[in-house]
Write a structure and sequence with these properties.
By secondary structure, this protein is mainly α. The protein contains nine helices and no strands.
Length: 189
């Protein structure tokens, strides 16, 4: 399936495919849009930020769709989706996070290995404000996709092997830096 997603990178409609994959990944699709984003950025690093924007907008709108699934169709669609991914245990953890820090949990979700759809469906099921989901998703998912785009824009295709090897570590480091920055700003202000 990863190869199928990557095959869209050189198509004339690649940007819209990226948007669509980012949309469906946020609510039910298994392959993260990073796969196509990276393939496209390798081919044309000068358009990496444009691709990150398509990816972010698709992901945020897909997150709203996931929210709708959780809010209206949790029993009929949400549970089967979460069960399919073996994510029901994550769902209960997310419930605890949402109870105390919904905004920060969604921001962080953009960087965790936990499927983002767990967070979007749970946000609807637990009645988190849709605006909290949207704003936190713009920050978290946007930061993730623009980080990937930045690496390709500044370093070109040579960075792909490094990212493939250390992607999870890089996202955790960026998440720590992001949260540390917010904590520092909160302490200073």
């Amino acid at each position: 399936m990863k190869e199928w997603v990557e095959s869209y990178a050189e198509k004339p409609y690649a940007e819209w495919a990226l948007f669509a994959i980012a949309f469906v990944e946020s609510s039910f699709f298994p392959i993260p849009p990073d796969v196509l984003l990276i393939a496209m950025a390798v081919i044309t690093p000068s358009k990496a930020f444009r691709y990150a924007l398509f990816c972010t907008v698709g992901s945020v709108l897909g997150g709203v769709f996931g929210y709708f699934i959780g809010m209206v169709f949790y029993e009929t669609l949400g549970i089967p989706i979460l069960t399919f991914y073996g994510a029901m245990g994550h769902y209960e953890t997310v419930q605890g996070l949402y109870h105390e820090h919904a905004f920060w949990a969604i921001v962080a979700a953009g960087f965790t290995p936990v499927p983002y759809k767990v967070f979007t469906i749970a946000a609807g099921a637990f009645e988190v404000s849709v605006w909290t989901l949207v704003i936190a998703s713009i920050i978290g998912r946007g930061a993730r996709f623009f980080l990937v785009a930045s690496l390709f824009y500044f370093f070109g295709a040579t960075i792909k092997k490094f990212i493939d090897k250390y992607f999870e570590i890089l996202t955790v480091v960026f998440l720590v830096l992001l949260i540390g920055g917010f904590v520092l700003i909160r302490l200073v202000l």
